[in-house]
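Minutes, methods subgroup
Present: GH (chair), OT, SY

1. OT presented the first of two proteins processed in the latest run. Sequence and structure tokens recorded below as shown on screen.
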Amino acid sequence: MSISKNIIDTTDTNGLTKAVQSYIKKKYNISPEHPWHQYPDYATFKELYSQKWFAIIMSVSGKKLGLPTDDEIPIINVKADPEIIMMMGRTPGFMPGYHMNKRNWLTILLDGTVELEQVTARIDDSYKMIADTPTRRIYEAVKKIPKGKVATYGQVAEMAGDRKMARVVGNALHKNPDHDSIPCHRVVNSKGELAEAFLFGGVNMQEKFLYEEGVTVINGKVDLKRFGMK
């Protein structure tokens, strides 16, 4: 995804900052959060499933960044590989993370020194570093279970890349951030048994969800030969 330079004036730092936020919203459907009351303009961006930051926008005195000015400079901090940080740190507009772990974070000036396309490329890399996690892969695997079918924890773990992490599947589904798009009610144990009631907000709720999709539950179990995902 790219944003045309015609959309903004990249010499307008406020416009560049807004363009970056717009890019994140359009590509990842993630809106900024403002966790610090004393710094209302600071914005953080979290990956949905891991709830980890992949970008932070703030304004900092140029002197704190080692620049010959006291003016407030807008910056964005993104996650990056240490080798990338070392390499990019020699390029104007890039430096090791300000106020972050300098081995794992890269600071980019949003004052027009760095073109928008370069900024968004680093944002994409940062997002990938955060998003490519076992939990994310588990959620994506669960999305593949068709309506009217169930899969075991082991099957989900295998679809997520490692059959040995069946227990991790249970932990991830317990923290499911979006049941509407991640149908964790379609996951059962190796015997076809349903999960404990509290995981779905009440007694028999998993059974109710499955019944609505045409899956029969008898004595708390699903017939895997009939309803199991192949």
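2. SY then presented the second protein from the same run.
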Amino acid sequence: MAEGLDRHSRRTASIHYLLPDPEEEEERRLAAVRRFDTLDTLPDPILDLIATSAADLLAAPVAAISVVDRNRIWFKARHGLDLHHTSHAPGLCASAIMHRTPLMLPDALQDSRAKSNPLVTGDLGIRFYLGIPLRTQDGFNIGTLCVMDHKPRTATPKQIASLVNLASVVMD
């Protein structure tokens, strides 16, 4: 029986060894962010139009195209949002880039990741959040196309699919 445990331990160690180091993966993701060279750049009218279209699609007051850097989230394009950047606080864009699929929070105050986010607790009072990861061709999520509202709500599958298409246009 001890021999079986040793084999199991070796298999588990091998599997663990193959998992990517989270810090190394984050450095690679940040290198992808820098490769796009969009941080602290002037507004792009086309991207602003995409953010406005995303807000219109969901009849929401706020939409943005974000780039998630190490310590902040830069809003490359915005609609209904006066901020150029915010802290890298968890819960919204920083959480959305951890997924391959859209992240929808029908009520951010009820979500353990987001309920302490400054965009949720501050003057903006975000309750609904839908973030579509902006994925590079080599597989790194560098930001989001996101839509936000001041009241809890949801989005339909068709609306989400349309936002996924818009996110693809952003990356093109």
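Chair's summary of item 2: Residues 3-171 form a domain with the Beta-Lactamase fold (CATH 3.30.450.40).
Next meeting: continue with the remaining queue.
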